[in-house]
Amino acid sequence: SRLRRRGRTPPTINSEEFGWTKAVSGGPRQRRFVMRCLNRLIAATAVAGLAVGCGSTGGAAPLSVTSTVLSQETGGEIAVFAPEGEGSWPVVYALHGASSNWQRLAGTASELASHGTVVFAPNYQTASQPQALEGTECGYRFVHSIAGDHGGDLDQPVAIVGHSFGAFLGLNIGLDAALYGPAGTYDACFTGAPRPDLIAAIAGCYYQVEDQEFDFDPVGWGWANQQAELILVAGMEDIDCEAWQSEDASAALELAGYNVELVEIAGADHGSLVFPVADEETVQAILDAIAAAGR
After folding, report:
1. Is the pLDDT of residue 166 over 70?
2. How far is the C-alpha of 58 from the C-alpha of 238, rounded, in Å?
3. What span, in angstroms and rounded, lies between the C-alpha atoms of 113 and 50?
4. Beta carbons within 8 Å of 208's beta carbon, 6+ residues apart
5. Do 151 and 82 touch, CB atoms closer than 8 A?
C-alpha cells in the first residue's frame, strides 16, 4: 500500500498557515513511502473513530481534546491527552528528549489526540541511558495498565512517538522484544507488555552526539518485533542530530528486515519538528501508519 518515490524532483508545498516552506523528499537517500489516497480512506475505516483525512490532517474536523496529569506508580508525572467524550481510540506513548519534560510535547500530543488517539506523555530521568530505559519501559507498561480508563483501546494500534533521545529510547524499548516483551527477562516493574505496532522516531541521534560516537546495530543487539511499522523523521536544518543519522539508521533498520519510512523536512531544525507542535507532514505520516496498522 506504499510506494517508494525515487529519482523525482521533490515537490515544494508552501504553507501560509505555518509560515514556512517544506519539501516532500524523494531520491535514493531522501525518500518517504506514501500511502495511496484510496488506501488511506479504507484503512481509516478500520480504526474506530480515527479522524484521518485524505491528503491533509485537516481532512476531518479536529476533535476537542482534554488533558490531565497523573502520577505514575513508579514515580514521575504522566500527562494524558484524549478526545473529549466517549470513544475508543488507538494509544500513543510520547517520549521527550534529554533534559526535557512532557510539557515540550504538549502541542504535538494535543494535535495527535485531536485526530482520534489517546496520547500518554511521561516524565522520566535522562541522566543515564540505563535510567532512561527503565523510566520509559516502566512508563510504557504503566500505560498498558491504565489505557482503558482513558478511552485507549489496546486492541487498536499502539504507537510510540519519541523525539531526540526519546527517538532512540522508543526504538530500543519498542523493538527489543526479547528483553522487554511479555516473555522478556526485564523485571524492574510490572510485567512485560506487547510491543508497539508503530514507532515514530523524530530527530534521533543514532551514531553521534557532539563529539561522542557510538554504534547503531539492530542486528547485533538482537532487536525483534519486525512487524512494527517504523517512521524516522529528520529536519534538514538539524545541527544537533543531523539528517544523515536518520538516513543511515533507516538503512540499517531496513537491512535488519524492518519496514521503514523516512520523512525529511526541509527547513526544519531539531526543535521545530515538535515544538510548539509537530509539522503537518510528520503528524500525517503517524496517522497514516496508525490507520494502516489497524486494517
Report:
1. yes
2. 27
3. 10
4. 214, 245
5. yes
Upper half-sphere CA count for residue 95 (Cβ side, 13 Å): 37
How far apart are alpha carbons 99 and 127 in whole angstroms? 8
The answer to whether residue 36 scores a pLDDT higher than 80 is no
Phi then psi dihedrals of residue 66, to 5 deg: -110, 155
Q: Is the distance from CB of 199 to CB of 160 less than 8 angstroms? A: yes
Q: Is 262 exposed, middle or buried, given 0-12, 13-18 or 19+ CB atoms closer than 10 A?
A: buried
Mean pLDDT computed over every residue of the chain: 83
φ/ψ of residue 269, rounded to 5 = -105, -170
The answer to whether residue 117 scores a pLDDT higher than 60 is yes
pLDDT for 92-113, tens place per residue? 999 999 989 999 999 999 999 9
Residue with cell 536544518: 237
- Asked if the model's pLDDT at residue 224 lies above 80, the reply is yes
Q: Higher confidence at residue 65 or residue 51?
A: 65
Joined together, the cell numbers standing for residue 291 give 490507520
